[in-house]
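Hi C.,

You asked whether I'd gotten around to modeling the 278-residue construct. I have! Everything is below, sequence then structure, no commentary in between.
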Amino acid sequence: MAAYIKHCITPETVTEYRPIDFAGITNAREMSGYINSAGLKIKPRTLIRSGHLHDASAKDTELLAGTYKLGTVIDLRTERETEERPDQTIPGAKYINLPMPDMTAGFGEAEPDDDDPGRYLQDLISAGCIAETGKYSQLVFGDTARSAFRKFFGLLLEAGGERAVLFHSAAGKDRTGVAAAILLSLLGFEDEYIIADYMYTNTANASAIKRDVSAVSGFIYDTAELDRVRRINGVQSHMLEFALSKIRIEYGSVADFAKEEYKLSYKDTEELKRLYLS
């Protein structure tokens, strides 16, 4: 793996993160501020990644519709998830659901318990609700993911960079993280920035991660188990490194992989750069 993934910088060393301070949308940020291998940046207010929009406040929707001129919302959650927590409508933005595999499959087997959140978190682990590297393969190579990504990049090309595109999953970390990573790679960004953007979720969700660990601290002491608890609202770099390495080992490059599996031609990739970089 080391031959394919460079030593990555930490989120703290990237000074131009652009988190968006929403009242009801978690893990939200603009994908701009990073510098790619050609010295270009993503145009401001064109690409946004986040968690679901179900709890978006009126001010949140006004900000997206007004300041960001949001034109497209791409929801990567499953049909079940969208039915349980539908997104708030953003005036002037079209909504598209592109279901991708749920990394918390089995979540319904664990019932929330406000009186004993620690037991609930343990139930999540027992139900297999925590993302593992094997599950991450399905976010890249699975049939459902391939179909979703083909449409995802088609929508980005269709949007034309004129109005912002927001894409999200439930927590905005696994499905959204993989989508962001592949997009950043195609736009010419080095792995240092791709991994750092992915890992910023841990900064954005720091309070939730601390809450989870605190809830189980009385009965879970094993380091590996605590790491699994942290992954409920956080991410670990090796998960994405695994996916990127597997792509490069089997296809040579992310661009070659996208061309073969997502039907995204080299011309399409160059058009994405023209639309979203400056």
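If it helps when you're writing up: The domain at 11-101+131-276 is CATH 3.90.190.10 (Protein-Tyrosine Phosphatase; Chain A).

Thanks,
B.
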